[in-house]
Write a structure and sequence with these properties.
444 residues, alpha+beta, seven-stranded mixed β-sheet, 6 helices
């Protein structure tokens, strides 16, 4: 792509959109192989370092370059960023920020083979030296080229200083790591001409290629790199300063595939707060906990690699707790909240995989401790009484007798009452004298 950029610049055809190779057209023309080394800022391919001179082409393939023709990104950090300029009357004009929105940016990013727009701002990549584009773009977001979009005339053909629109697209989604259990570990594959192809590198290039791959994937820095199991990888060579793999050199001959391990191997864990007694509520600045209540902080992560451990850190002090990860989670119990628990908590997930220690930290959980509207022991007792009342009511409803059972129960109760009264009467007669017994009978 570096050489392609020089070719497009030499032809005044904007930026390179794609490069590929195809079969040489057999029309009598001869091909040459250029051993050129370009830095990317040359105005002609002849200015590149070509100390070896041109070689004889094997007659099988030619190099195909597609340029954007009438749109380009200038003064950016790579092929996916820069100041937006449009070709008008054989000269390049800057686009004003007021005439360019996110849907327009999406079309430009697609046209240049990049990812979604990441930044859109006036003056982000300086001011253009030429004129200002005199129309307002009205893209719907589905067009494949910016010049396919509808336009309307602008009322003012000037653009205030600092308003030349600068665009940053995310790097193209044409690189992936496979077979490592994570998007940040595995064998390097590159999407080329409709298929995923294995990429390889010689020993001296592996470290640089790995650094570019990890950077493009947003996976931090490279931790290790080693030859993969496959032998049919396309050789790639990077200087480590490239923003994406397509900026690097690629050669036709094959070499062993490359396996890369990046530092951001583990996904970010989650942290959340729970309490069994209802003592937590959501305040304006996060969760608030009543004093005296128990609470639990739970750390969890997506199933990725077995094992590992969670470290719960408390940023307001040097206190830390550690537990092994069981089913990819761990719970830290606090029996009674007090003012010493006020502060920020975070979960750090550690695991040893691929012969290296990796860690990933969650977002901060800010906890506030506040006074309870009622003493904690009163609320506990009320909760216990409510639980008992619920249990008694449930038991009564479950064992509620039928009408027939009620009648039987009433008869049984009367019999028990009569028997009890007779036993009392007999006991009284036994204890009384003859005169008292007759009086007792009269009373009965």
């Amino acid at each position: 792509m570096i050489e392609a950029n020089v070719v497009c610049r030499e032809l005044d055809c904007g930026n390179p959109v794609a490069e590929s190779r195809g079969r040489l057209v057999e029309d009598g023309r001869r091909g040459v192989t250029l051993y050129s080394i370009c830095r990317g800022n040359e105005s002609s391919i002849r200015q590149c370092d070509n100390s070896r001179g041109p070689g004889v082409c094997d007659g099988k393939y030619y190099h195909h370059v597609t340029c954007s023709e009438s749109v380009r990104l200038v003064d950016g950090a790579g092929f996916c960023s820069g100041r937006v300029e449009v070709k008008s009357n054989q000269s390049w004009a800057s686009v004003c920020e007021a005439d360019f929105d996110r849907q327009d940016a999406e079309v430009v990013c697609v046209e240049f083979g990049c990812g979604a727009p990441a930044a859109l701002q006036g003056g982000l990549y300086g001011e253009g030296e030429g004129q200002t584009w005199g129309k307002e773009f009205q893209c719907k977001g589905k067009e494949s080229r910016l010049l396919d979009c509808d336009t309307s005339d602008r009322e003012n053909n000037t653009c205030p200083p600092g308003n030349a629109v600068g665009l940053t697209c995310s790097e193209p989604d044409d690189v992936r790591l496979v077979g490592g259990g994570s998007r940040c570990a595995g064998g390097v594959e590159w999407y080329d001409q409709g298929e995923w192809r294995t990429m390889g590198a010689e020993d001296r290039d592996q470290k640089h290629v790995a650094a570019v791959v990890c950077r493009q994937l947003g996976c931090g820095s490279n931790v290790s790199e080693l030859p993969g199991n496959t032998t049919g990888g396309i050789r790639v060579s990077c200087s480590e300063s490239e923003s994406s793999l397509r900026d690097c050199w690629r050669m036709d001959y094959l070499c062993p595939g490359l396996t890369v391990i990046c530092s951001d191997l583990l996904v970010q864990p989650d942290i959340f707060l729970t309490d069994p007694m209802g003592g937590v509520f959501r305040g304006h600045q996060g969760p608030e906990m009543f004093r005296g209540y128990s609470f639990t902080i739970t750390c969890s992560t997506q199933p990725q690699y077995p094992g590992g451990s969670f470290l719960l850190t408390f940023t307001s002090s040097n206190r830390t707790q550690i537990q092994p990860a069981v089913n990819h989670s761990a719970a830290f119990l606090f029996p009674a909240a007090d003012d010493s628990h006020r502060g920020n908590y975070s979960c750090v997930y550690d695991n040893y995989v691929f012969s290296h220690n990796f860690s990933s930290e969650s977002e901060l959980l800010s906890l506030t401790i506040t006074a309870s509207p009622l003493p904690a022991f009163i609320i506990r007792h009320v909760v216990v009484l409510l639980i008992l009342l619920t249990a008694i009511t449930t038991s009564y409803l479950y064992y509620k007798p039928t009408r027939r059972q009620k009648r039987v129960n009433r008869v049984s109760s009367m019999d028990l009452y009569v028997n009890a009264m007779e036993m009392v009467s007999l006991s009284s007669r036994a204890e009384a004298g003859p005169g008292e017994e007759r009086a007792a009978q009269g009373t009965e």
